[in-house]
Design brief:
- About 70% of the residues lie in helices and about 0% in strands.
- It has helices spanning about 10-20, 35-65, 70, 85-90, 95-125, 130-145, 145-155, 165-170, 180-210, 210-220, 225-235, 240-255, 255-260, 275-285, 290-315; strands spanning about 65, 80.
- It has a two-stranded antiparallel ribbon with strand order 1-2.
- α5 (about 95-125) packs parallel to α9 and α12 runs antiparallel to α15 (about 290-315).
- The radius of gyration is 27 Å and the shape is globular.
Length: about 325
């Protein structure tokens, strides 16, 4: 194909496309249609719709109704309350106390989980194959342990009469679940124990994807291990850290099993209540299903808001997720 000096770039591109059999009016090749990805995703979307969308719809609907044991048994008709349940919930001082405890506890769990997981991920890159395999198997074993089983084992370890931890520390018959802060600390340790393997394995995979030349150049420049992590690895692993952080926030904010099992349903006089356990008590212990549903909607909105704000801040910094 010859090109005259007066031919424009668009003319040349048009000739090339026509010679290859493409034109603006020609249909897209099979597999590149905009509807094709949605066709493959349709079965999963239907399943997710049935498992997520409908329960969330029912949760929101019940939160606007007067729905107690009387309505469940059919003794009284169900009436529409509007935002009455939310007004009652927001006017309850205990709700705000539990919300504050939940936020502080979840934040402590997230920070501790990320710190332990990232530290062990860096350690995995420094040890030999056999210790690395042993550490990963131990972490995956903790991650695969059911929450009820793990909580029961931790209670036995810290038992005031027969637990080995008190004997090793010389604490006698100290009860970890009696005090509010010690009980929260015990639950936090269990949550971190069963959550850090996800962070460890994910961050370790990200570190392995970083070119070795970058780390060697930083080390030759005299950077310490902490400086390499803060200035080199952390910025490069930011998309991965975003994922594990959001996952940890969601998991730790809605902790239920560990609190319920290890503190006996929320601790003495409800001193260790979190929102999930508080909603369970309102819905099933007090038969106030509408108030329990309202708490569930509030938790959903809080998690959605945290996730959206976090993603928006990252988008402003130009990060690709």
């Amino acid at each position: 194909m010859t090109v005259s000096p007066t031919s424009s770039v668009s003319d040349v591109r048009g000739r090339v496309r026509r010679r290859r059999g493409f034109s603006r009016s020609s249909p897209r090749p099979f597999g590149r249609s905009s509807a094709t990805p949605w066709t493959y995703l349709a079965p999963s979307l239907v399943v997710l719709g049935g498992l997520l969308v409908y329960p969330v719809y029912q949760l929101g609907l019940i939160s606007f109704l007067e729905y107690t044991q009387a309505q469940v048994s059919g003794g009284e008709p169900t009436t529409f309350q509007g935002f009455g349940n939310y007004a009652e919930l927001f006017g309850d001082g205990e709700f705000w106390r539990v919300l504050l405890a939940t936020v502080v506890f979840a934040a402590a769990c997230v920070v501790s989980t990320l710190a332990v997981g990232c530290a062990l991920a860096v350690l995995l890159t420094r040890v030999r194959a056999v210790p690395r395999l042993a550490l990963m198997l131990a972490g995956l074993g903790a991650w695969a342990t059911p929450a009820v089983t793990g909580s029961t084992v931790w209670l036995l370890l810290f038992d005031p009469d027969f637990g080995p931890v008190n004997r090793m520390l010389g604490l006698g018959d100290h009860s970890w679940t009696y005090g509010r802060y010690s009980a929260f600390l015990l639950v936090l340790l269990e949550v971190v124990w069963c959550s850090f393997p996800f962070v460890m394995v994910t961050v370790y995979a990200g570190i392995r994807a970083v070119p070795a030349e970058v780390l060697e150049a930083a080390a030759l420049d005299g950077a310490s291990q902490w400086r390499i992590w803060r200035s080199v690895l952390a910025p490069m692993l930011r998309p991965i850290l975003v994922v594990v952080t959001i996952q940890s926030v969601i998991w730790d904010f809605k902790v239920f099993t560990q609190i319920y099992v290890m503190t006996g349903g929320g601790g003495i006089a409800g001193q260790n209540l979190v929102l999930n356990v508080y909603a369970y008590q309102k819905a099933f212990a007090s038969s106030q299903y509408s108030l329990g549903s309202a708490i569930g909607v509030v938790m959903l909105l809080i998690l959605l808001a945290v996730t959206l704000v976090y993603l928006r801040l990252l988008r402003r910094q130009g990060e690709e997720l």
